[in-house]
Amino acid sequence: MSKTHWLYRAGLALAVVCLASIPSVAEAALPVVSPTSHDFGDVVVMTSSSGQTFTISNDNGNVDITDITIDDATNFTLTPGEMLPVSLNGMGASTTFDVVCNPQTAGAHSATITIVDNDAAADETVTVDCVGIDAREIDVTPSSVPDFGDAAVGDSADDVTRNVTITNTGDENLSVTDISLSGTNANQYSLTLFESDGMTSIATFP
Questions:
Q1: Please, what's the b/e burial string for 5-36 (b: 16 or more CB within 10 A of its CB; e: otherwise)?
Q2: DSSP line for 123-141
Q3: Number of neighbours of residue 164 by Cβ within 10 angstroms
Q4: Which residues of the chain form beta strands (DSSP E)?
Q5: Separation of alpha carbons 186 and 3, rounded Å
Q6: What residues contact 9, with CB distance under 8 A and at least 6 apart?
Q7: pLDDT at position 81, please?
Q8: Mean pLDDT per 10-residue interval, the chain, length 206 residues
Q9: What pLDDT, on a 0 to 100 scale, did the predictor assign at position 70?
Q10: Euclidean distance between the first and the last CA atom of the chain, given in angstroms as a whole number
Q11: Are β-strands 3-9 and 138-141 bridged in parallel, bridged antiparallel, or unpaired?
Q12: What's the CA gap between 81 and 34, in Å, rounded?
């Protein structure tokens, strides 16, 4: 409690307040995160990018980090640098966490990371982005089987064969799991598969 002393001089009252007994208000803890965002760029689907390290530092007071969460744990992996909770006592104290992008599907992915702490204002957030790209590319040549023309019953397959070549033109392994014929007269044709120089060819004939 403060104390007030009144002084009277020449008819003027002056109030002198003793501030020594007024408790000081401690400044709020203020964690700082750097960087506040990161773009991993293009990352091949089902692979992992290089990691990005984020640093949480104590800019004032004592900072208690109780949790670090990410809202897309499917396409990103977050790893704290040390077991949580962690206390950053004293200005300049810091801790880190790493994030890796590992897209499961092609397309743009974005996530928000939330650092839960004792900052009375709000929890700190960080954003990360990446684009999943599918490096498996397939080329089928020709895209339409040339007309067989007239094929007499009993002709040998060698006389009426048309080759279709499937080539992996991407940077990742490509698995061909099934090739089938469909349509009204599918039973009038048959398929034979053979591989050569990393390519799969289909021989079709009536």
A1: eeeeeeeeeeeeeeeeeeeeeeeebbbebeee
A2: -EEEEEEEEEE----EEEE
A3: 18
A4: 3-9, 12-18, 31-34, 37-44, 52-58, 62-70, 76-80, 86-89, 94-101, 107-117, 124-133, 138-141, 162-168, 190-196, 199-205
A5: 102
A6: none
A7: 95
A8: 53 50 55 96 95 93 92 98 93 95 96 91 93 84 78 64 79 75 80 66 53
A9: 98
A10: 103
A11: unpaired
A12: 14
> Closest Cα partner for 105 from 159, 163, 150, 47?
47
Q: What is the DSSP letter of 185?
A: T
Residue 25 pLDDT: 47
pLDDT of residue 62: 86
**How far apart are alpha carbons 122 and 31 in whole angstroms?**
10
Q: What is the pLDDT of residue 181?
A: 80
The per-residue b/e assignment along 113-148, b for 16 or more CB within 10 angstroms, e otherwise, is bebebbbeeeebebebebbbbeebeeeeeeeeeeeb
Is residue 125 within 8 Å of residue 113, measured between CB atoms? yes
Helix spans in the chain (H): none
How far is residue 126's CA from residue 98's CA, in Å, rounded to a whole number?
Answer: 12
Residue 195 half-sphere exposure, CB side, CA atoms within 13 Å? 5
Class of residue 71 by CB neighbours under 10 A (exposed 0-12, middle 13-18, buried 19+): exposed
Task: Give the type of residue at 145.
Answer: V
Which residues partner with 181 through β-bridges?
none
Task: Report the predicted TM-score, pTM, of the whole model to 2 decimal places.
Answer: 0.62
Structure tokens at 106: 């092609």
